[in-house]
């Protein structure tokens, strides 16, 4: 499995603001959306294209468009906020939703919802979640989209822990992971250190 650390200066500067405990909820949401949009440039770098004929104001010419449909699959709840960042660049993308929470005692993923578009086998599927911590939710979500027929799956997060990356790699070695940071470790409660706190709580004020 490929791991791509997206270390563009603008991305790293925005990530620092997300880590800062003084960043309020409104700023956190806005920066997260901006950061996701910037990372989409990297994750779409090798997307296939096809030629299309267009009429410029002066003459006919040939341009390009994405050759395959794109499906975005946020892991609820925090992943939902990443959608606008991606949709600002790929507004035609279809959207699925997967609801998973982490059992606070076992740290195992618990699925409670899954609604996905059809024909995933023809699509480029991007599963998004701000954090790749224990890796259980990410691996479970990727397993769901694969079971529905997805062939080309990519995982996009902001911060990853080595433990979670290892779990996802072992479960789905064919799925590339894109992250803005690979942090030091997980603590005993399954939080990424240094991390940026609980993204869902900071986004929704819970």
Short description:
With 206 residues, the protein is α/β, with parallel strands linked by helices.
Topology of helices and strands:
Elements: E1 3-5, H1 9-19, H2 25-43, E2 49-55, E3 60-66, E4 70-76, H3 83-87, E5 94-95, E6 97-102, E7 109-115, E8 124-128, E9 131-132, H4 136-147, E10 152-156, E11 159-160, H5 162-171, E12 177-179, E13 181-182, E14 185-186, E15 192-193, H6 199-204
Parallel strand pairs: 1-12, 4-5, 4-6, 4-8, 8-10, 9-11, 10-12, 11-13
Antiparallel strand pairs: 2-3, 6-7, 14-15
Helix pairs in contact: 1-2, 4-5
Q: What would your notes on this structure say?
A:
This protein has helices spanning 9-19, 25-43, 83-87, 136-147, 162-171, 199-204, and strands at 3-5, 49-55, 60-66, 70-76, 94-95, 97-102, 109-115, 124-128, 131-132, 152-156, 159-160, 177-179, 181-182, 185-186, 192-193. The chain has a single domain (3-204), classed as Rossmann fold (3-Layer(aba) Sandwich), CATH 3.40.50.2020. It has 206 residues and is α/β, with parallel strands linked by helices. The two termini are 34 Å apart. The relative contact order is 0.18. The strands form four sheets. Strands 1, 4, 5, 6, 7, 8, 10 and 12 form an eight-stranded mixed beta sheet that branches. Helix 1 packs antiparallel against helix 2 (25-43) and helix 4 (136-147) packs parallel to helix 5. It contains six helices and 15 strands.
């Amino acid at each position: 499995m490929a791991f791509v650390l997206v270390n563009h200066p603008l991305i790293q500067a925005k990530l620092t603001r997300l880590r800062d405990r003084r960043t309020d909820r409104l700023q956190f949401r806005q920066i997260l959306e901006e950061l996701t949009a910037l990372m989409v440039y990297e994750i779409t770098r090798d997307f296939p294209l096809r030629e299309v004929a267009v009429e410029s104001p002066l003459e006919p010419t040939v341009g390009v468009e994405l050759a395959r449909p794109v499906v975005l699959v946020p892991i609820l709840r925090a992943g939902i906020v990443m959608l606008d960042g991606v949709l600002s660049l790929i507004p035609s993308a279809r959207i699925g939703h997967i609801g998973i929470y982490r059992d606070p005692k076992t740290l195992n993923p618990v699925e409670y919802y899954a609604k996905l578009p059809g024909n995933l086998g023809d699509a480029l599927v991007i599963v998004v979640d701000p954090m790749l911590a224990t890796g259980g939710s990410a691996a479970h979500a990727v397993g769901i989209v694969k079971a529905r027929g997805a062939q080309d799956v990519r995982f996009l997060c902001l911060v990853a822990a080595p433990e979670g990356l290892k779990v996802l790699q072992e479960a789905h070695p064919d799925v590339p992971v894109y992250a803005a940071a690979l942090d030091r470790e997980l603590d005993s409660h399954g939080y990424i250190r240094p991390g940026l706190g609980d993204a869902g709580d900071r986004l929704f004020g819970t």
